[in-house]
Amino acid sequence: MSARNFISTAQLLVILIFFISSFFHVNALTSSVKNGREAIEVIIGGGGDSPPPQEPLCPLPPPPPEPLCPPPMPPPPPPNPNYLLASAISVIQRFRKTITSDPSGITKTWVGKDICKDPTKYIGFICNNNKVVAVNFNGRNFKGNPLSLKDFINGIPTLEIFHSNSNNFTGEIPNNISTQSIPNLFELDLSNNKYVGFFPKAVLGATRLTYLDLRFNQIKGPVNPQVFTLDLDILFLNNNCFSGKIPENLGRTAALYLTLANNKFIGEIPKSIGHAKGNLLEVLFFNNQLTGCLPYEIGMLKLASVFDASKNKLTGPIPQSFGCLEQMEVMDLSYNQLYGEVPETLCKISSLEELTLKYNYFTQIGPECRKLVKENVLDIGMNCIIDLENQRKPEECETFFLQKRNCRDMKSLSYVPCKIHDFSSRKSSSHTGDARTRSTTYAALKKPHH
């Protein structure tokens, strides 16, 4: 081999070795770069064989705030006093034209505009703070053709007191007497007129009333139960033509003085009367057509000083609970069909001035009750007590007891809802026997004077 050929072969081997080395170097570099990219992609969350993580759940944005309500509108300003006064004068003048007879002549003073300034003008009207707040027509004996309060009483919205007893107002009581039309009406006296129709629902809307007097009219039908939910101090319904049963919610009344006398009520005295134990001072049921037995709940009226259920058709014994009526001054159960023994605990009540049980069918009284007979506190004439004077004839008593009579709840008649002190004798009363004269409810039985 020549030298030139040897050199050529050697150069070819060097070139071949360099080429092979370059190839392995390039593959190694490519693999390194690929692995590096995969690592970088894994680090930043991509690449590799693992699936990408789920995107985090973001909470929903909060709902937009409720739109703010606009502030309430301010109440309308009160009417101008001058306008109210002028309006009242206009209403009075219209009413004046309906009066055909004015025996006392007061309508002659209803002239001009000085209703609240000149005391000689507008007699019968009373002002306060330049507003007409009271009307007093009591005993004026107005007449008209017809004489009506329609569009008059509600035409003076500033009224607080309205008294018009002993006149000749006719028709039905106006239907627009309410808190809406007369917001501050506290007293309403329409007694001793000629009102007819049914119980005036309009007055039930006058929710601020404390005094309601409808006696001595010709109002008929049942009494609306809602009247016993009014916050009244005085409720006089006597001497009308009311009929039907006394509403069961009688005991809800807030009244201190209540008269239902001289009507045509039937049925029993409601047991709910016991719920009025914290307020009822005097109550009159007499001269109706009430039946059944006296409920023991009457004995819960711890403040009551007057109770009169005479002239009805009540029967049964007097409940033992009546001995709890420690403030009682006048009790009248005469002219009924009561029988049995008069409770000794009732006769021991020290405040008693008058206990009237005449014209019943009682058969026995004890020593305490006999003391009251001697003191003229207890009137038990015309009963069936054998050893007392002025009693019914034996045959009359016998005829009465031939008919079997029972109360629906006889056990309750022996129930005593208080602790009764066993006084050895009744204390002398500090009063002089004129309890009826002092009574507010008995006074309501007289017609108001003309």
TrEMBL record:
Main location: secreted
Region (Disordered): 45-77, 424-450
Annotated Gene Ontology cellular component terms: extracellular region
Protein name: Uncharacterized protein
Localization: Secreted
Organism the protein comes from: Solanum verrucosum
Matching InterPro entries: Leu-rich_rpt, LRR_dom_sf, LRR_extensin-like_regulator
Signal peptide residue numbers: 1-28
UniProt entry keywords in alphabetical sequence: Leucine-rich repeat, Repeat, Secreted, Signal
Polar residues compositional bias, start-end: 426-442
Pro residues biased stretches: 50-77
Pfam families: LRR_1 (PF00560)
